[in-house]
Amino acid sequence: MAHVTTPRPVERLIAGQATSDGAGVKLVRVLTPDLQRRLDPFLMLDAFGTDNPGDYIGGFPDHPHRGFETVTYMLEGRMRHRDSAGHEGLLGPGGVQWMTAGRGVIHSEMPEQADGRMEGFQLWLNLPAAQKMRAPWYRDIPAAEIPELERPGLRVRVIAGRVGDTPGAVQREQTEPLFLDLHLQAGARFEQPLPVAHNAFVYVYRGALEIGGRAVPAQRMAILANRADADGVALAAGPEGARAILVAGAPLREPIVQYGPFVMNSKEEIFQAVEDFRRGALA
Ligand code: CO
Predict the structure, then answer these.
(1) Strand partners, 10
(2) What is the pTM of this model?
(3) Spacing, Cα 261 to ligand 1 middle (Å)
(4) Residue-wise pLDDT tens digits, 175-201
């Protein structure tokens, strides 16, 4: 894999906020609205993980979205997706659902299990102003269709972007998202070049990592500094090994105005989204 000579240091560690969404699904909002500018083009990251059905059984009944993309990555458990465009799919362990809301969808995401573990992430990726009203699109990517790289002690699942010669399952032109799931055995290392301007973070969900001399424990997001002299990220697993997601992308540098499930560039566009939803014109 590509070599990084000057790795980015960690700028900040973030613990996130415990909250609930949908019909009472418990989760941790790791990327909160106050970090939207810093981590442009990413708008939100939720981490969920529980063995207690009471924490997830309510699911996410019908709700709208406009103006961005949602990327749901399941580690364990099954969720069924239905939307107003007539799409339906079952998201299982290791699978991804990539949904481009564009001008609007109404969808539901409901657990397809009454017990057992449910664990995964939902990442929100902004759309450029010129694409916020595009036609909606979505794709279910089963686990077997996500490209993987194997090295001794290391497995990399390439959900989006590219690692060396291996393109990920999804590519996007303007935001150029990189979304990797990293499985590292004790002491394993991983390096990934990153353009200086791209905003990037690592979220550790098992074990612990060391990034640029800083220990990053589980359930923490490390925001990586955009230093002009740094050419990428280098990380190493501690003695218990680690699992983490690495996310990076090109900032859009456009105004961000969010009202719940609508993310546009101005208040007027938000009023329009709410009005369109009320009169049933969003779907
Ligand atoms: Co949704």
Answers:
(1) 224
(2) 0.97
(3) 8
(4) 999 999 999 999 999 999 999 999 999
